[in-house]
Write a structure and sequence with these properties.
Elements lengths: L8 H9 L3 E2 L1 E7 L2 E7 L2 E5 L4 E7 L3 H9 L1 E6 L5 H8 L11 E4 L2 E4 L4 E13 L2 E13 L6 E3 L2 E3 L12 H9 L1
Antiparallel strand pairs: 1-11, 2-3, 2-6, 4-5, 5-10, 6-9, 7-8, 9-10, 11-12
Pfam family, one: Flavin_Reduct
Protein name: Flavin reductase
GO molecular function: FMN binding; riboflavin reductase (NADPH) activity
Amino acid sequence: MEPRQSVSAQLFRDMMAGVCAPVTVVTTANDGVPVGTTVSSFASLSLDPPLVTVAFDRASKALEAIRVAGSFGINLLGHAQADLARLFATREVDRFAQTEWHFENGLPRLAGAAGWLECDVYDAVEGGDHILLIGHVVDASHAELPPLVYAYRTFGTHSHYDKRQRPEIIDTIAALSR
């Protein structure tokens, strides 16, 4: 069977723009120098072992740094961190000089993020003009914050995140005692 012709790049771009994606800043360090970039192609892959994926353009400096370091952090941004996403998507600026962060287990962790994953490189898979890194999650933490998402080339969050139903604390305690 002959390969079929691909859809146009513009049509594909326009279609994928409507897919909501979580916004993350992926970080690593080489010789104590922090490296980071905004990534919206992040997904869960496996529970056993716990694996996630992030995709990088083949020419990404962050990808090169992660391959050297062998580990990376994923900062899942909260709804109030759109400026941070833009900062880490900007080239030729000192990103870490313009935000609050600290090293956690040798990886740069951004202050105020909704979640944090510490990963060891598990595998790398070629995919067209990108490399899909598979990370083995070795540590994680999260805050109960609305997530930052990206769709139709703009940042936002779930429209009703703050209005969702939450069980009363007494219901939770009763459920745990059963």
